[in-house]
Prior knowledge:
By secondary structure, the protein is an all-alpha fold. It has one domain. It has three helices and no strands. The protein has helices at residues 8-12, 37-46, 54-57. It is flat.
Amino acid sequence: MNPFALSAYQMVGLNGHILLIHLGTVPERTDKFYNHLPRLIRTLQRRGYEFVPLQEAVR
């Protein structure tokens, strides 16, 4: 599954969500999610999402 190919239903559901990523992975793993984070951020920004500090999001 391509993590960047989200359906319209899923995209509507992302508003207000907090993305939490665990950076600790074993060195043997080659599929580390954080390596894809810049692309994910760019993709979501192109789709109109914006990223804000947590303090601002929970006001």
